[in-house]
Amino acid sequence: MSHFKSRFVMASACSIVASTLAGEETGSLPDFSRRDHPLEVDGGTVHAWEVALEVNDSLERVSSPVVLFLHGGTWSGRPDFDLQFEDYSTMESFARKGWDTFAVDARGYGQSTNPEGENWSEAADVVKDLRVVVERICELRSVEEVSLVGWSWGSQVAALFAQEHPELVSRVVLYGTRWQPLEYEYELPDERLRISTLEDAKSDFVEGCFDPKLVDVYARAAIAADPDSPNGVFRDYYANLPLIDPEKLLAPTLVIAGEHEASHSIGDMSALFEALPSTDKQLAVIPGGGHAVHLEKGRYRWRSTVLAFLDESPGR
After folding, report:
1. Domain locations in the chain?
2. b/e per residue, 221-251, with b = 16+ CB within 10 A?
């Protein structure tokens, strides 16, 4: 990536922050429709949660371009992306900007069926379910493709899906991602599920980067939605990396992370960015942000950076 393009991405983020703040913190708030879409997939049920501006009561309405959020390895889509506290709902924020937003819960997360048999909710397992979900969303919204925003382990799902089903993907955002194998070894888990705690839910937040009230609210919401979570994420990180083959990821791609990214190396993300073949790609680092910057003080800059990238989609 050239130095000029690095500066351009960061300058673009800065120029949009003021208008984003004004638009989200003042004036009358719009009405949102929220719908749960339970889909039968290969013997189980996978839930997709939708947040959009209220237009009418028709489920089959033709709507805005679609962005699909993919959660990380411990918590499901609603606490991650539609947290009902002040202005912290990422899905509401994107819906205000003209996007029809969905968040899908992998098996074992949220209200979706627990994985069984050979399915541990590894990224490859989720991609199989996700094709059915994306095709159904395209049918509901009369679109041919969606944009994907994957956070943490969800970025592995997003990239793998975009590699295998490029015809269904417009743009990809890899947020807090990891490409290359870890430098240390772990023992693979024997249990399919693990129990989570309030402290686990607070662990992604970097001191000084967040509102303490938010972290308490988020932790309670996360535990309520996901008292336990599948261990497929650890099988991916400990044994399956690299899942992403940059040469096969042809969609326009944004690689983005907080400055204090704790879970993954900024250097690893830079190497992934350089390996992507697309000429339409960006690498962005959000100053003062951690692994969960979309829920921290830097969320406005994160939102404006991601939205600016997604808004370059055809038809926007």
Report:
1. 3-310
2. bbbebbebbbbbbbbbbbeeeebbebeebbb
* Cβ neighbours of residue 92 closer than 8 Å, sequence gap 6 or more: 32, 51, 82
Homologous superfamily in CATH for domain 3-310:
Alpha/Beta hydrolase fold, catalytic domain (3.40.50.1820)
Count, in order, helices (H) and strands (E) of the chain.
10, 10
The CA distance from 63 to 66, in Å, is: 8
The predicted-structure confidence for 138-164, as pLDDT tens digits, reads as follows: 999 999 999 999 999 999 999 999 999
Cα 103 versus chain centre, distance:
8
238 touches 186 (CB < 8 A): yes
CA distances from 271 to 108, 118, 154, 161, 162 (A): 32, 32, 19, 20, 19
Element containing residue 44 per DSSP (H, E): strand 44-53
